[in-house]
Amino acid sequence: MQFLFLILIFCISVQAQAEVLTNADVIGMTRAGLGKRVIQQKIEKSQTDFDASAKALIELKTAGVDDDVIALILEKAAAAKATSEKSSEKGWSENTPASETLQFDKTPESTKKTLVAAKTVALIKSSLNPSRQALEKALLKRADWRKYGFTIVRYKDQADIYIEIGRIPLSWITHRYVFRIFDRRSGAVITAGETTSWGSLAENLAREITQKLAAVN
Predict the structure, then answer these.
(1) How far is 115 from 69, CA to CA, in rounded Å?
(2) Domain ranges in the chain?
(3) Using an 8 Å Cβ cutoff, are 189 and 216 in contact?
(4) What is the domain class of 111-216 according to CATH?
């Protein structure tokens, strides 16, 4: 019986992974009477292939889709476009032109020396959440972050160190996110950790990041 249960869970997970949500699916859920929050959660937890053209947005609005849901569709479509553009670039930064490729120093300093010498930091995300602005704000609110005197820069190739953030796949219940902090010049990992999105994801990440940095010092 337990074996059959595990097989069922596996099949459900595979099906969830294979499903790709479209505008038509959102319209269908809306017409079925599903609430805004339910639809938003479904969008956040699914692979998507949304059409964010003006004509498509008008169709969504005409079908009665909530404005907050439409805003989330726009965010997902923009994130998908950015990921597609990123994969076609040769640069290391999510916004580095293809002609600019970083040259790594293969002999990194100790993690402590790297951290002491660092003046600039970039935030690199593979997940939609948290927003870059929310995470920057949460970090800058913390006294234990401000003591480092870091300047947050937009592009990875301008930073001494960078923080890479991503969501753990299939963590729908625990909502787990991981981060790694790299020495940009050598590619060496300075420290790493994880947290959840329960409460405020940006604040949780800011707390865990600064605690891990303090442990290096």
Answers:
(1) 41
(2) 2-87, 111-216
(3) no
(4) alpha beta
